[in-house]
Amino acid sequence: MQQRSGEAREPVVGVVACDMLALLLFLACGEPDPDATGPRWDTATPASTTTPTAIVDTAPTPLPTGSTASTADTGPDLCTGFGPAQIEVGQGSLATFVPFADSDRIELTEGPYGDLGFTLDLLSNGLDTRSEMNAVLRLTVDGEPADFVSLIILNCPTSGPGWGEVHAALSGDLAARAASGDLAGVPLTLTLSVVDTERDEATVSLALVVD
């Protein structure tokens, strides 16, 4: 969430504010991209649920269609980071999550504070979702960079996967172009890196098109 002048900092549901001065926290979990600078993310209320992503969420969350996981499962608990670290970016909430693929179109959306940007669903496997993890999001929209840094905690139902939703709000010239519709059809590159407290790291990079 971008800090507005004169406002006191407050905790944000689903995303813990990460100051540029606090980037030394990356040393505690790993260093996915230590030179990154940029605003914080906003969380958005998932359309498929009645409550936003929580800092600590122990309640069951619906699993993707076709999943047979239940509270009676005896398999490994993916919420603790079992298996190779993976992160996906897509849309559709947990129950209907569809990951983006190269050349897909991504829609401009309005965030919780009315800022235009991109609402992203994040889906993880092999990352410890029981505590916050470092996240660095790098966007390049029509050649212009926009970087975001956060400490995030993902919801994780019994046996996983981890899931959360964030809104990356554009600013400056990109925000003005988004408001005027000038970004329609322009190329967008997206790279997301996350590191958990066990120093497991996952990165995904995509070449998309603004819808």
Structural commentary:
- The chain has helices spanning 26-29, 172-180; strands spanning 15-16, 42-43, 86-91, 98-99, 105-106, 109-110, 116-125, 133-141, 144-152, 162-169, 187-195, 201-210.
- By secondary structure, it is mostly beta strands.
- It has a single domain (15-47, 79-210), classed as Sandwich (Immunoglobulin-like), CATH 2.60.40.
- It has a six-stranded mixed β-sheet with strand order 1-9-8-11-12-5, with no helix packed on it.
- β8 and β9 form a beta hairpin.
Give a short synopsis of this structure.
The chain has 211 residues and is mostly beta strands. The protein has helices at 26-29, 172-180, and strands at 15-16, 42-43, 86-91, 98-99, 105-106, 109-110, 116-125, 133-141, 144-152, 162-169, 187-195, 201-210. It has a 6-stranded mixed beta sheet, with no helix packed on it.
Primary descriptors:
mainly beta, elongated, disordered N terminus, six-stranded mixed sheet, single chain, six-stranded antiparallel sheet, 211 residues, 6% helix, Immunoglobulin-like
